[in-house]
Amino acid sequence: MAPKLTGSVALVTGASSGIGAATARELVGCGASVALVARRRDRLDALAAELQKAGGTALVVEGDITDRTQAEAAVQQTVARFGRLDILVNNAGLMLLGPVVGADAEEWERMLAINVQGLLYPTRVALPHLLKAAEEGPRRVADIVNISSLMGRVARNGRGVYNLTKFGVNGFTESLRQEVTQRHVRVGVLEPGGVHTELGSHNRPEIQASIINPFYETTEVLAPTDIADGVAYMVTRPRHASIGELWIMPTDQV
Ligand code: NDP
Question: What's the rounded Cα separation, in Å, for the pair 164 and 115?
Answer without folding.
Answer: 10
